[in-house]
């Protein structure tokens, strides 16, 4: 995973993740890292945005930074699969799968 949107506040970054879902260029799945060091996929960010942007958000929802999933997070067994797949701490799907949810 790579941090992104460092020019935005965490709340604004979370709003952008909920809306855009993908990093551009690259098309990688976006998500956020929370105050308790959890990882949320874009689908969960969109579903739980009200909790996430709440100024009194619990640490499990409070956004710290946005990220995008890079090729190593894709869960595909290939030459790029050098690191463990990253799973969303809320829905337990591989974060790159969020992009295929409706
Ligand atoms: Zn999720």
Report how far the terminal alpha carbons are from each other. Answer: 23 Å
- Helical percent range? 10-25%
Rounded mean pLDDT is 85
Number of helices: 3
Task: Jot down its keywords.
single chain, 4 strands, 102 residues, globular, alpha+beta, 3 helices, binds zinc ion
What's the SSE blueprint?
Elements: E1 2-4, H1 10-20, E2 30-34, E3 39-41, H2 42-47, H3 49-53, E4 63-68
Antiparallel strand pairs: 1-4, 2-3, 2-4
Describe this structure in words.
With 102 residues, this protein is of the alpha+beta class. The chain has one domain (2-100). Strand 2 and strand 3 (39-41) form a beta hairpin. It has a four-stranded antiparallel sheet with strand order 1-4-2-3. It is globular. The protein is 22% helix and 17% strand. It binds zinc ion (ZN). Zinc ion binds next to strand 3 and helix 2.
In short:
This protein is α+β, with helices and mostly antiparallel strands. Helix content is 22%, strand content 17%. The protein has one domain.
């Amino acid at each position: 995973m790579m941090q992104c949107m460092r020019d935005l506040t965490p709340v604004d970054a979370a709003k952008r993740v909920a809306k855009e879902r993908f990093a551009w260029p690259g098309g990688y799945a976006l998500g956020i890292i929370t105050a308790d060091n959890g990882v949320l996929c874009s689908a969960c960010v969109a579903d739980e945005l009200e909790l996430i942007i709440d100024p009194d958000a619990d640490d499990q929802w409070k956004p710290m930074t946005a990220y995008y999933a890079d090729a190593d997070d894709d869960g595909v067994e290939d030459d790029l699969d050098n690191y463990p797949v990253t799973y969303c701490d809320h829905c337990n799907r591989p974060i790159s799968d969020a992009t295929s949810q409706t």
